[in-house]
Amino acid sequence: MTLALEWDRAKFHSMDEGTERVEVPFQPEQLAEATRQALAAALVNLEVIGGPIEDAKLSHDHIRLEITRDADLDGVKRQVQELVDGVVGRFDEAPG
C-alpha cells in the first residue's frame, strides 16, 4: 500500500528568519492505530536540530514539518514519502 502525500496542497507558514512550517495533507485515519503510532515515531526520528527538518509531527489531518529555509524541498519530500512508504509497507494494510 502506498499513500501519496499531497505536496501540491501543502501550506507553508513563515516562523522566523531561518525556519518555516509546512503542513502536508495526509489522512492517517486510513491506517490502523499501530501503523499511525509507528509513523508518528518514525517522523520524530527525522528531526535534526539545525535542519533540514527541525520538527516533524503527525496530526489528525496532516504531517507538520518545520524545515530550514535553505532545505532542499525536493529532498525533504522524497525523504518523508520514503519514510511513509516504508512504515506503511511494513504493516501492509488496505485502506478502510
Description:
Strands 1-2-4-3 form a four-stranded antiparallel β-sheet. The two termini are 12 Å apart. The protein has two helices and four strands; from the N terminus they run E-E-H-E-E-H. The chain is globular. A hairpin with a 4-residue loop joins strand 1 and strand 2. It is 32% helix and 25% strand. With 96 residues, it is α+β, with helices and mostly antiparallel strands.
Mean of residue pLDDT values: 87
Quaternary status: single chain
Radius of gyration: 13 Å
| Overall SS class | alpha+beta
Overall helicity: 25-40%
By DSSP (H or I, 4+ residues per run), the number of helices equals 2
**pLDDT < 50 runs, ≥5 residues:** none
Most strands sheet: 4 strands, antiparallel
Termini Cα gap: 12 Å
Shape: globular
List the helices and strands and how they pair.
Blueprint: E1 11-14, E2 19-25, H1 33-44, E3 53-58, E4 62-68, H2 73-91
Antiparallel strand pairs: 1-2, 2-4, 3-4
Helix pairs in contact: 1-2
